[in-house]
Specification:
With about 300 residues, this protein is an alpha/beta fold. It contains ten helices and ten strands. The protein has a single domain, classed as Zn-dependent exopeptidases (Aminopeptidase, 3-Layer(aba) Sandwich). It has helices at about 20-30, 30-45, 70-75, 110, 140-155, 175-185, 220-240, 260-265, 280-290, 290-310, and strands spanning about 95-100, 115, 120-125, 160, 190-195, 205-210, 215, 215-220, 255-260, 270-280. The strands form three sheets. It has a six-stranded mixed β-sheet with strand order 4-1-5-10-6-9, with helices on both faces. Strands 2-3 form a two-stranded antiparallel sheet. Strands 7-8 form a two-stranded antiparallel sheet. Helix 1 (about 20-30) packs antiparallel against helix 2, helix 2 crosses helix 7 and helix 7 packs across helix 10. The chain binds zinc ion.
């Protein structure tokens, strides 16, 4: 299925030189993620820039298929297990979790196809999301990870709110999803997704808000803190899951900046999306459908949020 919606990442031009990219990223990408970048730069001579287009890279590219890199490139131990002393470390902090899509959207296509204003343009209210080839839906996935994430964050004392919990017949629309985070005065918002890309395209990526200022969209104040949040989540996601950053967007960083997502454009509080993997790739699907792996994913996201909120 060719999925076109908020999760669809249009082809992005590759930057010109790997070496320059690596140097630039060294200044931007912390921790384990930098390890991935360096691994990519030196460990994959076949990954040149000839393709000119990340979206059409060969599906068999070996770059991001090694699952154990975090164990060798990351000198930090696995993430901390919450202890009694952690139980109130996030007291007073508000985290909004946005489980992408809604399991009931499939029955309400006319409602979710309604266009809403996202400042820069008009987009569908919401989308159905994708699914694995075996029919495990993205909406089920996002809710499951959201529940696991909520448990972990509450163990740290955070106040956690959802934009939806399969408790409404469709949506909410992307503008309302943003508004929920804004009205909650959230200290951090994470929108959870899994992608619907082509087979062979693997790995996770975190989507950061680009700078937009049009209509109701003004992301200027949140671009920098959102990047901080996103980088921390990307790093902790690598550590917790052992998954590689996307091999089809983000040039191996696991970070993608977008200016076309209403949920980001309309946010006034730090917010990122995470695409935890590609549901249309069989290897990624095997992870996404595993409860044990989803727990690791939730832990990775949680640790990034905790790190961000502790500063
Ligand atoms: Zn999605």
């Amino acid at each position: 299925m060719s999925y076109v919606g908020p999760d669809f990442d249009p082809p992005q031009p590759r930057r010109s030189r790997r070496r320059a990219l690596t140097v630039a990223l060294a200044a931007l990408v912390p921790g384990a993620l930098l390890g991935w970048v360096l691994y990519e730069a030196v460990g994959d001579p076949g990954d040149g820039d000839a393709s000119g287009n990340a979206a059409v890279r060969p599906s068999a590219a070996p770059t991001n298929t090694a699952p154990t890199i975090s164990a060798t490139n990351d000198d930090k131990p696995p993430g901390p297990t919450p202890t009694a002393s952690d139980s109130d470390s996030l007291k007073g902090k508000v985290v909004v979790i946005d489980p992408g899509h809604n399991p009931n959207n499939f029955q309400h296509t006319s409602e979710i196809n309604r266009k809403v204003n996202i400042g820069t343009n008009w987009k569908e209210c919401d989308t159905t999301g994708t699914s694995t080839n075996d029919g495990y839906t993205e909406a089920e996935f996002t809710l499951d990870v959201a529940h696991r994430l909520r448990t972990l964050l509450r163990q740290q004392g955070a106040t956690v709110k959802f934009t939806q919990d399969n408790d409404r017949s469709w949506g909410p629309c992307v503008d309302e999803r943003a508004e929920i985070g804004n009205k909650a005065h959230a200290d951090a918002v994470v929108s959870i997704h899994a992608d619907g890309a082509s087979a062979g395209q693997r790995g996770f990526h975190v989507i950061l808000p680009g700078k937009v200022n049009a209509g109701a969209a003004n992301t200027g104040p949140i671009v920098t803190p959102s990047r901080d949040l996103g980088e921390r989540i990307a790093g902790s996601f690598v550590r917790a899951t052992g998954s590689a950053p996307s091999n089809y967007v983000g040039d191996g960083t696991g970070l993608v900046t977008r200016e076309d997502l209403g949920g980001l454009n309309l946010s006034t509080v730090p917010k990122v999306f995470i695409e935890c993997g590609n549901m249309r790739d069989s290897k990624d699907a095997a992870l996404l459908t595993s409860g044990a792996w989803r727990q690791k994913a939730a832990r990775g996201i949680s640790e990034g949020i905790v790190s961000f909120l502790r500063g």
